[in-house]
Amino acid sequence: MGPTPLDWQSIESWQNLMGMSLEPKEVTAIRHLSFAFVDQQNKSKDAKCPPPWVDPEQVNREKVSDKVSETFKAISKRRKKRSGGSR
């Protein structure tokens, strides 16, 4: 079993341990955020899932792939330079 959203009892226990009293709307917001976090974590297991901070309609996978390839080529070149080209 994977991660689960925070339940009401966990939030209540945290409040008691910390000596804090959250407003009902704050507790509700925490629950909503917890559900959203777990939902996104599950979606992110799919390799084709775009990052949550990006509009999926604006992701150009080919362009991203090209940038990643260029980056790895640049890293490889730097390593070869440092080692005298023996790699």
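[next item in queue]
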Amino acid sequence: MSDTFDLSKKEVKKQDSEQDPKLNFNLSLLQQLRAGRRPAQIARDLGMSRPALQYHLNQLKVAGLISKLGYGCWEVNDTAPITIKKRSSKTIQVTLDNTPEKLKFLGLPDSVRGHAFLFVLMVPPGLLNWNNRRREEYLKSHGIAYQQLRIAGGGQRIWMGGRKVWLTNNSVIIYEKSSFFAETARDAKHHALMTFIALVKKVEGALHADFTFKLGKEYRFKVSRQHYALVKNALAEQYDHEGKRLHVREPDEGKLWFVIDNSFNLHEAETVHPWTADSDNAKVQNFFNSLKECPVTTDALLTAIAGVTQNQVLFAENISNHIQAVRELGQGVREMNLLLAKLEVAICTLTSTHTPPADLQIELENSMIR
């Protein structure tokens, strides 16, 4: 099952604050490069010389905002200047290039680190010039480095935004290298998807392709891999201290869905199922949060279970005693009825005034037979 990302629902808020004209020009230039426009086209539309535009491109390159892929082909590096970017009050994106030691201070206990994302973007059927031969021709003519994919159907591997991208006839596969720290797995996944969509637009611009469906309204994709780790988890800390690892698999299909490891010394309890990792993480997180609110030890649980078991044994004994008492009571009632019947016969005999009822005589005869 694939997901969709509806582009028509995205809104851009109007900004009223005044900005520096130079900043506006740089932002406009970045936006046009992101859209895949060539420097020659931009210079012509702006009515400026190519050397003048090249000066601004060099300034952006020195600032680390863009990098050159080939002749006349530039890539906008949204994450290049810094390794840690705070996108919202709830989510932090961290790239892992040469920065694992910086991860130690990130994340509160049992907050979530979303990582190891693998996105598969569907290519619209009949996309013009989208086959191995024409893609290779385009990459070569624009000086974009690539490697052949040794897979069925072939393809090319390129690098975009520091991420590995596979180009195949049916899909574009993106390996996300960043970690996304958030309060919940849902927030981490949402931010990863926003980063994925931004990278798709870069790929479209670099390759002059359009991967949208329904006349540019949506992308279709699936998340083939996703990991969500509870950071600085107490159970994980205990396992890591003892040098142990924990792998939990599904009882039916045997798929791995929960592991404990010590990635980047963060003591992580991690959900890794390719399809349900996000929902699994929410359940695990709720369990540990509940355990924090109502802490209980294993000894206390065993004691409570033993107490419940003992109560059940006593209850069973009481039920057995009650059943026996009811049986004895029934026997006593039958004996009392028999005595009353005999008494009534004796009274009738003494007075000789009437004959005992027929049903009473039958009852007496039956009792004598017994």
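[queue empty]
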